[in-house]
Amino acid sequence: MTTQSSANIVDVTEATFDREVLERSKTTPVLVDFWAPWCGPCRLLGPMLEEAVRRAEGRLALAKINSDEQPELALRHQIQGIPAVKVFVDGKIAGEFVGALPEAQLRRFLERFIPTEADRLAEQARRHESAGQWDEALRQYRDALAQQPDHAAALTGQLRILVQQRRWAEAQAAYDACPGPLQVTEEVEALRTRLELARAAAGGPSREVLEARLREQPDESEARHQLALCDAAEGRYREALEGWLAIVKRDRRFRDDGARKMMLQLFGVIGARAPLTEEYREKLARAIF
Predict the structure, then answer these.
(1) Is 42 tagged catalytic?
(2) What do you get for the CA distance between the two ends of the chain, in Å?
(3) Which of 63, 3, 71 is nearest to 28 (CA)?
(4) 21, 42, 153, 195: which is the annotated catalytic residue?
(5) Is there a contact between 281 and 271 (Cβ–Cβ < 8 Å)?
(6) Mean pLDDT, 10 residues at a time, over the chain (289 residues)?
(7) Of 12, 39, 144, 174, which one is the catalytic site residue?
(8) Is 230 a catalytic residue?
(9) For residue 115, which of 84, 142, 85, 90 has the smallest C-alpha distance?
(10) CA–CA separation, 19 vs 32, rounded Å?
(11) What is the number of other CB atoms lying within 10 angstroms of the CB of residue 260?
(12) Residue 135's CB: how many other CB atoms inside 10 A?
């Protein structure tokens, strides 16, 4: 069977597999079709895969591997029957099947991997976000949500930017719009914690008042706690942790060991393996034990 080469349909060898499949799949899902010239079902499936890729208009790629000519690749991927199709996303296998599927079944299988317009907008938004272009990123996340209101990456991205910009009321509304399963993901839970910290800080005295109180009474735990809340809400995590650590060292009974609990909450916001978390986790352990 001959194959039709194009920008999105390529013949792959062992020498080109990493580039054409693993690396490319980090930006575009790649179908890998293991076939052979003597295989009748391969001659049925191959043209359907190629047509599906052409219809996807750049949102899907096809890597064709002649199993007879590339036995090492077939062995590496444990091919025991052909045609065999594996879908790579972000360098890993995300789906697979063996045999020539009927066209309707093949279409349903591929729909799981072809990026939607909402996916495209959310990916563009993430690139703008990475570049610090917050307003453009937020606009594109919202465009993605207009296309698909339950798009998880767009919902999370919108919330992340609103929290980053400390637009707390909008951020709360964005959090409330997240479905339950999304609210319990690690990233969204951390963003919710930042919202709660900001709300707690907003309900207390101003930074100026708190700093004045601490100048007069450096050991006042409540003022130090409130100031740590302000620091945490403003992203001054080291200062917040230092404030709560000072309370832990002096008064574990404050708010029923509340300073230690606040530090643990903030570790979740910063990241469990972040250097700052590791540093203050060790300091907290020394203070307690």
Answers:
(1) yes
(2) 71
(3) 63
(4) 42
(5) no
(6) 65 95 93 96 95 90 96 94 95 94 93 89 94 96 96 97 94 96 95 92 92 96 96 94 97 95 95 95 95
(7) 39
(8) no
(9) 90
(10) 13
(11) 19
(12) 10
